[in-house]
Amino acid sequence: MSGPVAVNDLPSPTTPVDEVETSCVEITEDREAMVGHMKVRRALPRRGRRTVGAWCFADHMGPAEVTEESGLDIGPHPHIGLQTVTWLIDGQVLHRDSLGSEQVIRPGQLNLMTAGHGVAHSEEATGQYRGKLQGIQLWIAQPEGTRHGAAAFEHHVDLPQIATPGADVTVLVGSFTADATSPARHDTALVGVDVVFHGGASNLPLRNDFEYALVVLAGGLTVDQRNVTPGHLAYLGRGRDELGLHAEGATRALLIGGEPFDEPLVMWWNFVARSRDEMAKAYDDWQNETSRFSYFPSPIVRILAPSPYWLRAGS
Fold first, then answer.
1. How far apart are CA 210 and CA 260, in angstroms?
2. Cα–Cα distance between 181 and 160 in angstroms, integer?
3. Which 8-state DSSP code applies to residue 291?
4. Alpha helices per DSSP H over 24-178
5. Per-residue pLDDT tens for 84-117?
6. What is the pTM of this model?
7. What does the pLDDT look like over 154-188, one tens digit per residue?
8. Preceding amide of 107 cis, omega within 30
9. Distance of alpha carbon 129 from alpha carbon 66, whole angstroms
10. What residues contact 237, with CB distance under 8 A and at least 6 apart?
11. What is the DSSP string of 244-263?
12. Which backbone phi and psi does 87 adopt, to 5 degrees?
């Protein structure tokens, strides 16, 4: 489920982006993309909306049928300057990385990988699971203070769960309430929760200094008389203390939010940086197989990066 960010996901140079609105409902349509062997719906980044807090990427994957030997099939590829958050609704995925991690992730469990200065990983079939696969992967942009640090990997089986009227909430990253904080690392003030709505009215507590967005995975929600369905991102702005919603029957959604991320970002392929020079250096290091992105064994072919679009003739 890891990227890549394509040129047509990025804002045009003349379009203002990442303006933090107040208590709005701004709905944008996802873009379909192929990642590995699977179709995904990309909610972030979009032209005009690169980030929600430090969240800078969201791919809703599946549902699709997989076998023991054929799943996501995403070969070794690199990351810098971000954290990957992998959350499954159905199925299993095998994660391998250049830190030596080898971890099967299942529904209700969280994988979080911190890239820092550089890491490589793959996402593979488990060799034992056959059936439906569905989930979401998100990226979190690392701030200046941590983005040059060492890579790391975490797997969390036990996450905080709380019941609110009309919904059950699992806290993936950050704090949702004073007594519901995820054990997963976070480098900026943010939150990400999986919400299962039972139908009818619900009310979720929010922080008024955070901006928020909803990604509906199944079902449908009504927010401020606007309908939100799978295949769309609903940006909610900031300034709310609570969020009233109405679910059309059983519905599942991710609520993501955080303090507005005020550092400039440059995103391309699987990299999050601050300049094209940093991107070009990471590209060269990956193509030349330097020690920055260590080798690890995988049955899937290592992915080569496309040439940076700004270095191509005529760009």
1. 7
2. 7
3. T
4. none
5. 999 999 999 999 999 999 999 999 999 999 999 9
6. 0.94
7. 999 999 999 999 999 999 999 999 999 999 999 99
8. no
9. 8
10. 20, 21, 22, 23, 24, 26, 211, 212
11. EEEESSSEEEEEEEES---S
12. -140, 120
Q: Give the position of tokens 């062997």.
A: 37
Environment class of 117 (CB within 10 Å of its CB; exposed 0-12, middle 13-18, buried 19+) = middle
> Span 130-153, mean pLDDT?
97
Which CATH architecture does the domain made up of 24-266 adopt?
Sandwich (2.60)
Q: For residue 314, what are the CA distances in angstroms to 194, 269, 283, 309?
A: 44, 20, 20, 9
Distances in Å between the Cα of 53 and the Cα atoms of 60, 137, 221, 261, 273 are: 19, 16, 22, 5, 16
In the structure encoding, which two tokens stand for residue 216, read together? 């509906």
Look-up of token digits 């990066």? 305
Distances (CA, A) of 58 to 41, 85, 135, 165, 302: 8, 9, 11, 27, 23
